Task: structure prediction
Amino acid sequence: MFLNKYKVIGVLGGMGPEATVDLYNHIINITPASRDQDHIPALIFSNPKIPDRTASINAAESEKIILYLQESARILEKGGADFIVIPCNTSHKFFKEIQEVAGIPVVNMIEETVKFIIESFSGVKEVGLLATSGTLKTELYQEYLKRHSITAVIPDENIQNEYVMKAIYDFIKAGKDINHAEKLLKEAIKSLKKPAQEKVIMGCTEIPLALKESYDDVTLINPTKILAGIAVKQSLGT
Result:
C-alpha cells in the first residue's frame, strides 16, 4: 500500500493559513517526484482558531493556546500522521507541551534552523533575526544560537513595531499590499548592524511570503523551507 512506503507528515497549521500552504508547497517542490504517486502522504490540519501566539505571550495567557495546540496535535496523531511539523515559529514556545501529548515525534523548527546555520555558515558569529515580538520575547532563537556562540541581532523597539510587526500583521496576515510589506521588512534588515544584516533568519513564517529571495548582499534564512526539507527526509527515511 502506498501509505506504507513513506512516513505520513502531519502539518499542524493555520498560523496563518498562507504560511501552511507555503510549507506544503516547499514539501512538494523538494520531494523527488516525477508523477503523483511519487509524492509524500501528508495530513494537514489548518486550525486558524488557535489564539494569536504573540498576543497570548504578551498577555501571559498561555493556557488556552496550549489546549488548542495539544488538541490539534492529537487530531493529527489519530488521523495517522507519523510525525508533526509546525509552520509557526512563535508556537514553538509551547513545543514541550505539544510533544508531551502528541504520542508521535514533533520536529523542532527552531532547533533545525540553527543546525542549518551552523552547517551552512562555518564560523558565523552574528545573524540578523526578524520575527514577531512574541518570538523575540521568548528568546527561542537567541537561546539556541547562544549555545553555539552565535549572537542574534534584532531590530530596535521602534523598528520592530513600525516595520516588522506592521509588515506581518497589517499587510501579510491582512492580505493587503505584499509589496509594501516587502519594503518594510527590507528597511528593518537595513537597520541591523553589519555583519548581522548579511545573514538574516526570517523567524516568522509569514515573512517569506513577502521576502521570497535573497537580495543584494543579504542571505535570507528560511525556516519554513528548512522544515520542509527535514519533513521530506524523515518521510523518505533518508
